[in-house]
Amino acid sequence: MRGAVVSAAALLLVGLGTALPARAAAGTPVAGAGSTWALNPMDQWRYAMAASGHGIVAYSGLGSAEGRKQFGYGILDYAVSELPYGLTEGGVTEKPPTRPFAYVPVVAGALGLHYNLRVDGEPVTDLRLSSATVAGIFTRTITRWDDPAIRADNPGTRLPATPVVPVVRADASGTTAALTQWLADRQPAVWGAYCAAAGRGAGCGTTSLFPTAPGDVAVAGSNGVTGYVSRPGSDGAITYAESSYAQSGRTVMARVLNHAGFYTSPTQGGVTAGLARAATDPSGFVRTGDAYTDPDPRTYPLPIVAHLIVPTATGTSFSTAKGRTLASLASLALCDQDTSTYLGNSPLPPNLVGDGLRTTARIPGAVPGDVDTSGCAASAAAALRGAPQPRACDRVGVPACGSTAPGGHEQSIVTTVEPGALVISIEGSPHVVLPAPVPDPSGEHLHTSGPMTPVTVTDSRPGNVGWTASGQAGDFAGPAGAGIPASSLTWAPVVVDPGNIREVTAGPPVPAGDGDGLGRARTLATGSGPGTVDVGARLDLDAPTGTRPGTYTSVLTLTVI
């Protein structure tokens, strides 16, 4: 069985609309910076703005703190941040800008608790944690994985005596603020005592700089902390990061106890359900703490939200012409939540979309109707409809689903392991239509981008044989013999849903200007162990500026071996 090679091929049609021969942007350009987590959806919305003629938008992922700082200085037209102005760090309170401003929520996601834990060499994949236990782990009062508090969260599950290794952010981050806000609200006595012992004062509350203690590992960036947890030899490590960082399949995330008494995972529907009753404050900032006590049993209680920080008055460098472009960007982001969810985030619920649109109307120069907002709630409605109720075995006090609790009797069980099969299939339409391309910021190419239809890889073979899924495109054929070389098409693979497969990793991105692009076979994903996984990719096409107008078609062949 280990020597068998199983392969399959799927066809994907990529249609290209009429190319635009010249820059068609109608709005005045705007520039912003901030959250690195929001960088991918912001890039997609920027291209959509240019494609629809609403204006050129620049964005740099410099980090939320730097974005807020530059917006406050008046350098930027807008910023993107998970954190509001006004946090106190080390006794110094961040001053808000003197220019009038407001917050517009645009990206919703979850703070996941990523961990690496094994028993007799096998990974623990369904860990459950309460806020009290998480507080104990990150304040160092719980130091081993077989601690009674962790066992109480996971009755019937075998847990090792492995030391707990908390991995925290070394830099200021919105994820640290989200975790510490939750701990300060849910476990104020434990968190207050830890802050005091760390020299930060008993009232340090929400902080973007984690107060480290002996035994902590401090690493910069969400990529850094999740990379540390997933590396070989990191058994016992646990960290916090956006749940989208688990899409590569490198880490697993714990279920977290919610207010209704269920341990839930950071699914898209769980996050949307938890934010469905969340309110915004007068400035437009989302009160994510409302999810801590949400009674919906589907709620995942650790949401995070990135906000556009927008001017609400004109000033030296901000005009109503810029305001019209910025208002269109905000409206597009609020109403195109499918782009964000494809990248592993969650759709904003209708209440927050409505609040965001009302704030957007306060931007000077905003023109009602510039962006169609009639279908803004569709993504959230679909996520809420598809969010399953928690299982009975996810309730607090009940043995964990698939627990290893010993029985009272022994039985002899016999089974036969069949060879199994390796299958790849397209779960949806095989036809992908990319938006009409527009000149990229350099003016050297006509750019368009969009997601391919995800494919499902199902491996029922025993023995952890391993597989590789790859894709290769043919040249685009257009009108009257015109064409676009396949080397102009590139992709950024992503694990859409890791499912129940043992290990899966998205293939490396193929950058623009690579030379070959998808003209030769490129890795979409690799996996090991039986199970089912959904993988996909963002497709990017950079066609020559001399491309003739017309519709262009290519075939992307997907193979798994």
N- to C-terminal separation?
Answer: 14 Å
Assembly state (oligomeric) = single chain
Q: Helix share of residues? A: 10-25%
Shape: globular
How many strands in all?
30
For the largest beta-sheet, the strand count, sense and barrel status come to: 9 strands, mixed
**Discrete helix count:** 12
What structural class should be given to the helix and strand makeup?
alpha+beta
Mean model confidence by pLDDT: 86
Q: Provide the low-confidence segments as ranges.
A: 1-25, 404-412
Round the Cα radius of gyration to an integer and report it. Answer: 24 Å
Strand content: 25-35%
How would you characterize the overall build of this protein?
The chain is of the alpha+beta class. It is built from 12 helices and 30 strands. Strands 2, 3, 4, 7, 11, 12, 13, 14 and 17 form a 9-stranded mixed sheet that branches. A 6-stranded mixed sheet has the order 19-1-30-23-28-27, with no helix packed on it. Strands 18, 20, 21, 22, 26 and 29 form a 6-stranded antiparallel sheet that branches. α9 packs antiparallel against α11.
